[in-house]
């Protein structure tokens, strides 16, 4: 090992030790969800209607989502597009009022059984205060998406107790792997084990490595790291006491991941969780993105090792062609050494 690498590792170790003594205590920002009753949506069945909405960015290629709708119809479902799915208002599909109305209408519509976000991007957080949470609570339905949709998944879960789903959007690659695991969680009502990636510390995007060994269980919450951090301090995040936190991101420089995790530390969130799964950070740890010679693995170990809770990197969720569907708001068990997430209960009901 050359001297610069030795020095860097000594520095990381010192930082990690120091951070173990630095804590802001419990967060006064996040609202308490301990007394919110969990609500599970009904499983998806052949012949059901799937609504498609665009709660953020406009679609650059509307034909991709139209093809997704055709695929669903071929699988035996009915499809209903939101009024503003193919709209354009600046970089959004519609005004905040229009986009929130689309989502509210889908939840209120008795014919709609599930709702899929057309894409991510940005805009979900702008409509959180405009959603009709009482209507959502009275009409629980499957709602799925990822990336920017994180804000809506967490906000709806926090405000209603409804289990939501971090998974593919309309513009995703609905390949065999992705669709298979979508069906396992949303259609088959199955509690099963999601296996981590092959152990490979050299694969910067999808390799798996252990940060802190051990098992932990709790309610799983999380999503896109960047979007998640943009919600800190709001009323739309749950209490993280005893939760299993999962995170993912794409195209972020390592120093920005460092900054985001520092924000979660300062907000008291990291000190409350029972375990952490950093699913993937696609195209983050490239030579071009790596700043000041810190790798993503070093930064994750710096922030997560001092917590002393089971944590690992590497599971198929997020900005990948093949991805799991992860339920937000159900009990899970993680095994950091093996890189697994075991669902301890079904995410939907008959």
Helix content: 25-40%
The span between the termini is 57 Å
What is the top-level CATH class of the largest domain? Answer: Alpha Beta
Alpha carbon gyration radius: 20 Å
Strand arrangement within the widest β-sheet reads 6-14-13-8-9-10-11-7
Q: Figure out the total of helices.
A: 9
And the CATH topology of the largest domain? Glucose Oxidase, domain 1
From the helix content, strand content and strand pairing, which structural class follows?
Answer: alpha/beta
Any idea what the CATH superfamily of the largest domain is called?
A: LD-carboxypeptidase A C-terminal domain-like
Q: How many structurally independent domains? A: 2
- Please state roughly what percent of the residues sit in beta strands, choosing from under 5%, 5-15%, 15-25%, 25-35%, 35-45% or over 45%: 15-25%
Got a strand count? 14
Order of SSEs, N→C?
A: HEHEHEHEHEHEEEHEHEHEEEE
CATH architecture of the largest domain: 3-Layer(bba) Sandwich
Shape: globular
Q: What does the largest sheet look like?
A: 8 strands, mixed
Instruction: Calculate the mean pLDDT score and round it.
Output: 88
Uncertain parts = 1-7, 9-33
